[in-house]
Design brief:
The protein is built from seven helices and eight strands. It has helices at 21-29, 31-34, 45-56, 106-121, 136-144, 173-178, 191-194; strands at residues 6-7, 11-14, 62-68, 74-84, 89-96, 126-132, 148-159, 162-172.
């Protein structure tokens, strides 16, 4: 593993480096990947390098690369955006950019890993996200990780030649602690163990 920050069962999170810019640019410019994102403009390496530098210094953004433990391949990114220390909340974002790695459960594992980091290490109370209704795979991954549907923004986005609804989902810390999403019910005395990340 290279500069691992959060370690899971099959993947780990690490900070982005300038050398990752070409890989990230390829992710963003791929139409199949981009269709699930808000971003719609072409990306070049210089813009990506600037983005990496800016977000590595941010106090209210935590954006990390998702790498495979078996070979250190960078397959995507995961992040907590607009982190509020006062309100103890953040917005979640996820991208699996290597299409050969889709439908293998990496999105679910990354979501669970980041939720654990958010609630145990950062002491957040709420993590929310927006997802297009036209992305059923993403919705399933978020539901498996504990997110629940809060509402629907009707015809809020234009994708693939039509207007689609945007689904609003969230998970609260108390829900996460009481859930069996992690394979067992979390107890107060287990919270320290959760801080040792061996598995958003």
């Amino acid at each position: 593993m290279k500069n691992a920050f959060v370690i899971g069962e099959r993947i780990y999170f690490r900070p982005f480096e300038k050398a990752d810019a070409p890989t990230l640019t390829g992710f963003i410019n791929d139409p199949a990947v981009r269709r699930t994102l808000e971003w719609h403009r072409p990306m070049n390496i210089h813009t990506e390098e600037a983005w990496i530098a800016e977000h590595n210094k941010s106090e209210d953004e935590l954006i990390l690369g998702i790498a495979l433990k078996e070979n250190d391949e960078l397959i995507g990114s995961v992040g907590l955006h607009k982190i509020s220390a006062r309100d103890r909340k953040a917005t979640f974002g996820l991208l699996i950019g290597v299409k050969d790695e889709w439908n293998k459960g990496y999105g679910t594992e990354a979501t669970r890993l980041m939720l654990r980091h958010a609630f145990v290490e950062l002491n957040l109370n709420r993590v929310a996200l927006h997802v297009y209704e036209s992305n059923p795979g993403g919705v399933r991954a978020y539901e498996k990780a504990g997110f629940v549907l809060e509402g629907r923004l009707r015809q809020c986005a234009f994708r693939d030649g039509r207007y689609v609804d945007v689904l609003c989902m969230s998970v609260l810390r108390e829900e996460w602690l009481q859930s069996k999403v992690e394979g067992r019910k979390a107890k107060a005395d287990e919270r320290v163990e959760f801080g040792v990340l061996t598995e958003v």
